[in-house]
């Protein structure tokens, strides 16, 4: 959860020993002097931890630090949409009337338990060497008549940032005009895609939440429109679990190949959201209304085999031979006459294009409303504070 992580990392800058505010101890108490030194040492030690202790621990550290230095939570509760500060406030407030001394002790104990399970880097290790940069979130290549658009944020399970939606649109537009015969969407690492990056909701502009929801609606509509209009064969190479919008848009692909490790999950109700990617239309058509409802309303997660039996997936391959088999198949298909493929694809799509655009516009507009709802806000806050995992 990078947002809270980053935010906590920033707080740790403020924990520099020279900036730590006075702890309000009674001079002359040897126990407390020791405790203060231990506490200050622990504060410094946190910054040397090599391994990320995870958001839950970092929140505990934050809360204990605040309690130890300022006492019980004494600031107003941040608004519901101020996810990060609300999460921090909740953690601090949960400590109730715990004394400063007890909080300091708990902080020291917690850091000490972390230090024993994680080696500190040598002081000269440059920060950049500790966490390698992720590089480009989208990688587009063209080879053997195939343009491949690869989601490339493996450490975030290829969650889609707003920039990635824009980049995919641009990549599809370029692919529609390039020399390739087939276009492929796939993912790097163990996941295909974990859907919309939930931290997209935290990037509020001056226009506030309403403006964010409005621009989200436009971006979603443009993204899905681009898939509806894509003129060449579009293939999904589903290399691992797929969540949310990465699943719903599969109904707009021509062929979907999946590893037997893949799962297909659309937890919209859990998130206080509603279906997109034209799935409210394509899913009932592909698998029948009751099977579609099980996925889109109740968030039933399908195995690759189940998704194949329901017609969402074209074929499932054993994970061990997935890449080899699929790419060999695609290379063979890419030798087919490109114009015939284009014309055939377009005549198939033409029958439904208008309908799909209308469905997309409606789904996007309904989602804009959903994004402003308490149900959605609470679900996202819950994910960001790591209370719930889907
Ligand atoms: C209004 C503005 C919107 C602008 C954009 C509009 C465009 C269209 C929007 C269309 C609507 C789309 C809807 C959806 O896609 S709904 C589905 C959303 N996805 C989820 O709810 C999945 C959430 N993730 C999880 O449940 C788990 O992470 C997952 C099961 C996928 C994997 O669990 P696992 O335990 O294996 O791994 P981690 O949880 O530790 O994940 C590793 C790190 O990756 C981060 N992560 C994963 N998925 C997401 C995500 N979707 N958004 C943000 N971050 C994600 C996770 O937090 C971990 O990060 P840290 O290592 O930093 O903790």
From TrEMBL:
**Is Transmembrane helix given among the entry's keywords?**
no
Asked whether the UniProt record includes rRNA-binding among its keywords, one would answer no
Predominant cellular place of this UniProt entry's protein:
other
Q: Which InterPro entries match?
A: Acyl-CoA-binding_prot_CS, Acyl-CoA-binding_protein, Acyl-CoA-binding_sf, ClpP/crotonase-like_dom_sf, ECH/Chromodomain_protein, Enoyl-CoA_hydra/iso, Enoyl-CoA_hydra_C, FERM/acyl-CoA-bd_prot_sf
Q: Which UniProt keywords apply?
A: Isomerase, Peroxisome
Where is this chain's protein located in or outside the cell? Answer: Peroxisome
Single GO molecular function: delta(3)-delta(2)-enoyl-CoA isomerase activity
Q: What cellular component terms from Gene Ontology apply here?
A: mitochondrion; peroxisomal matrix
Q: What is the lineage of its organism?
A: Eukaryota, Metazoa, Chordata, Craniata, Vertebrata
Q: From the UniProt record, report the name of the gene that encodes this protein.
A: ECI2
Which residue intervals are annotated with compositional bias (Low complexity) in the record?
113-122
Give me the ranges of the annotated region Disordered: 113-142
Q: What is this protein called?
A: Enoyl-CoA delta isomerase 2 isoform X2
């Amino acid at each position: 959860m990078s947002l809270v992580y980053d935010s906590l990392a920033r707080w740790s800058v403020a924990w520099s020993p020279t900036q730590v505010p006075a702890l309000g101890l009674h001079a002359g108490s040897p126990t407390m002097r020791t405790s203060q030194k231990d506490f200050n040492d622990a504060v410094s030690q946190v910054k040397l931890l090599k391994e990320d202790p995870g958001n839950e621990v970092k929140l505990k550290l934050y809360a204990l630090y605040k309690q130890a230095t300022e006492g019980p939570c004494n600031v107003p509760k941040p608004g519901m949409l101020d996810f990060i500060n609300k999460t921090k406030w909740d953690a601090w407030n949960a400590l109730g009337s715990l004394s400063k001394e007890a909080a300091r002790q708990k902080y020291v104990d917690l850091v000490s338990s972390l230090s024993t399970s994680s080696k500190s880097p040598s002081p000269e290790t440059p920060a950049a060497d500790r966490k390698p940069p992720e590089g480009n979130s989208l990688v587009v290549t063209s080879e053997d008549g195939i343009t491949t658009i690869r989601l490339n944020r493996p450490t975030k399970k290829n969650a889609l940032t707003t920039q990635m939606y824009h980049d995919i649109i641009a990549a599809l537009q370029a692919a529609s005009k390039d020399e390739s015969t087939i276009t492929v969407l796939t993912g790097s690492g163990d996941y295909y895609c974990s859907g919309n990056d939930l931290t997209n909701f935290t990037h509020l502009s001056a226009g506030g939440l309403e403006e964010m929801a409005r621009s989200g609606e436009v971006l979603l509509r443009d993204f899905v429109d681009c898939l509806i209009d894509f003129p060449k064969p579009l293939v999904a190479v589903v290399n691992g679990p797929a969540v949310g919008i990465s699943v719903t848009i599969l109904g707009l692909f021509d062929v979907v190949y999946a590893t037997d490790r893949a799962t297909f999950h659309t937890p919209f109700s859990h998130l206080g959201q509603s279906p997109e990617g034209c799935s409210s239309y394509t899913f009932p058509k592909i698998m029948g209304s009751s099977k579609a409802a099980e996925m889109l309303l109740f968030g039933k997660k399908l195995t690759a085999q189940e998704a194949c039996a329901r017609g969402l997936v074209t074929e499932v391959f054993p994970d061990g031979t997935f890449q080899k088999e699929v790419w060999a198949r695609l290379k063979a298909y890419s030798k087919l006459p490109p114009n015939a493929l284009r014309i055939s694809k377009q005549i198939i799509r033409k029958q439904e294009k208008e309908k799909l655009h209308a469905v997309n516009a409606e789904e996007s507009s309904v989602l804009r409303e959903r994004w402003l709802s308490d149900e959605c806000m609470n679900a996202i806050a819950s994910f960001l504070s790591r209370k719930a995992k889907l």
